[in-house]
Amino acid sequence: MTAFSHFRCYSxxxxxxxxxxDLSIGSYCDSISTVEHEFLHALGFYHEQSRYDRDDYxxxxxxxxxxxxxxxxxxxxxxxxxxxxxxxxxxxxxxxNGSTILTxxxxxxxxxxxxxxxxxxxxxxxxxxxxxxxxxxFQMQCSFPDETMCQMTxxxxxxxxxxxxTKVKGGPVSDHTSLPSGSGEQGEDAGYFMHVSTxxxxxxxxxxxxxxxxxxxxxxxxxxxxxxxxxxGNMSDHLNIWIREFQDELDLKGTLRLMGQITGEPxxxxxxxxxxxxxxxxxxxxxxxxxxxEALEAASQSMT
Length: 304
Hints:
Binding site for Zn(2+): 37, 41, 47
Cofactor: Zn(2+)
Strand content: 15-25%
Pfam families: Astacin (PF01400), MAM (PF00629)
Helix content: under 10%
Largest sheet: 5 strands, antiparallel
Active site: 38
Shape: globular
Number of helices: 2
Structural class: mainly beta
GO cellular component, one term: membrane
Low-confidence stretches: 179-189, 293-304
Number of strands: 15
């Protein structure tokens, strides 16, 4: 398969040419989610709203759509996914007369068409399609189920500290799964996320959140942590992303390296953040929140 830049975005669905085929990432298509969308087509995925069972979950308003849609499917038994990166939005291909896709459950009307990243069900379906029993790319994935911290540890200086919550006054009222704003009702019980507030702290106070120790399990030493964050405080406060590398199993302290920083204007929605690591040793990933000047409320979710 060859990816190139064309004037539009497109991909064949599945392998259709034995001697290789093209995939186009054209103008305005170079976001992570769009690239994922096109590569999933190449790997055999149809659009989510083209599933055989789509009429149980959405209504296609044919009189408002430019073209008809086919009921093709590669579900692998995975339930319908409103969060799928393969799902079109409510106004996709509209002829200007109104929405083209209406969800049977109105709580998901603003969810369909999300373009942050592939969903957990997208990943599950892909693994089932290619009979992958595990992934070598991800060392851990945490959505803080049942109020557990996924073997992560936290510590604080002064009065700051990470807390597991479902909503924050002046910040998000739900976790990142109620895309895109974190402020709508959810189809399931509200999820947890980690939150730190510096409203009562002093300048320079900090709070640490750290993963468990992870080992290298692939030949190329590149790691790609990603997490959602919501910043609702002062633009001068910042979240530092560290890696702690260990020489061997007897090394209990490790060596810290700063790998990235999040700061700037407060956000009004959950944002996805990626950082590239290059550890050649056993390692931990750490988030250190530092208070600067005035009060800050922020949260971090879904460390992977």
